[in-house]
Each structure stands twice: as structure tokens, then as C-alpha cells.
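JOB MANIFEST
job_type = single_chain_structure
chain_count = 1
residues = 266
[input]
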Amino acid sequence: MAFAELSTGVRLFHTDEGGGGPPLLLVHGVGGDSSDWVFQLPAFSVRHRTIAPDLRGHGGSSTPAAGYGPGDYADDLVELLARLETGPVVAVGHSLGAVVVSNLARERPELLAGAVLLDPTYGDPPERDAAIKALLRGFHERGDVAGAVAALGSREGADSLPWMVEWHRRRGLATPPHVMTGTLVGLHDSAQAMNRGEVEPTLRARRVPLLVYHALPGLAAWEETLQQDPRSEVHDVSGRSGHWMHHDLADEVTEGVLTWVAELSR
């Protein structure tokens, strides 16, 4: 357990445990923290050095007044990896974290041996993108964290355990409003749009092997068309899992990641 004081003044809580390679970097989503990975950490750290930070504005990390776009989160992680002298890692991201990792796969591929993306929040069809932008407008006007958390909650699976749903909800409600606003705007504004038409060229530019899981119907088939590396895999878990598939399908996702990473190392 440690805190890294970054050059920007941000203080990142992180754990760095286990041994072996390649190292794993675990990146949680908005409204969460590194405890998102409680189902994976025991198995991951037996086989790999495993680094699990709290992103800025989340958990035990500091909460600056601004800087919550995907690029800001990515810059923090780049500096953290340099401080920890990890060499190339397999970065595992969920939701927002998957977008951050996807950006690293495009912009800093030399830092990654591979990337695992769990229900990344990109590729929205036009109707969903329009609904999210309407939510953002209301969020700006009212600072409605509860509304944003409810929208995220709509992505829970039909079979998600009630205590998990409540865990996700309560952590989201505790997220500072400016962190939630800055993050959602960063994901969906015109400069870093995540809707399908605008994001495809960006996704095709990723230059590392990818393991991708999608929970929304149709997204896995679309994701398949974007892959550039023959080692990449895409899995459709729609109908079997909600947005938090590393909780809903914990054993399946844990073993799937470990197996895929082992294949990369051969």
C-alpha cells in the first residue's frame, strides 16, 4: 500500500503486490475505486505483479478541482508506471477505466504488453449517445449525482446480486459532483466523443493485442470489426451480465484474463 505524489500535485493511492510478469495494471470506472477488483486481486497477484490504483478524485486519492478527462487519468497512470519501473504492463480497465486503457493502447503502446477492456463506454449508437448527452445537460444544470448514478445503475444485469447493486450505487453517490461531471463530460464531449461514428478511427489506431468484453447487445460484433491484432479476442456477455461483469461473472472473467495473458507470454 502506498501513495504516489505526482508532478501535477495529484496524490494517487495504489497497491503493488504479487510477483511475476507481465505486470497487471487494474483501472476502475467512474464512481468506483481499486476495491472494484476484490474478486480478481487474489488470483491475479499469485501469478503477476498487480498494481491497483484509485484514480484521481476517487477512493483514497486526492481530488483536484479539475482534470477529469480520459487523457488526465491516462497521464496519471503513465507517471505512476514510470515511478514504479514496471516495464510494459497488461492494463485491465472497466468502463471509464477501459476507455483510459484504450487511449493508452493508441497513444502509448510501448507501455503495454496488452489491454483488457471490460464493457468500455464507447461505441454508443446514436439514440444512446443522445440520451447520455441529455443526461449531461441536466447534470450541468443541477449537479445531479443521483441521476448519473441511476443511469449507471440501469446497466446492472437482471441477475446482479442485490448487495452488489447497492455497493455500486452507494460508492457512486459518494463521488464528488465535480468529479462525476468532469468525467462524464470528458467521455462524451465533442473533443473526446465516444459515440460510434466519431470513435471508430481512434479505435482502429490501437496497436496492442486486446481482450474485450461487451455487455450491451451488438457491441461485440461491432468491436470485432475494429481489431488489428490477430491475438485479440472479443467476448459477448450480453444477457448473462450487466456492466460490472468482473463482479457478475467474476470467476469467468478472472480466468479469462489470466488465460489470455498467459497466451500472450508464450
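[summary]
The CA atoms of residues 15 and 188 lie 30 Å apart.
The beta strands are 2-5, 11-17, 24-27, 50-53, 89-94, 112-118, 210-214, 233-236.
exit_status = 0
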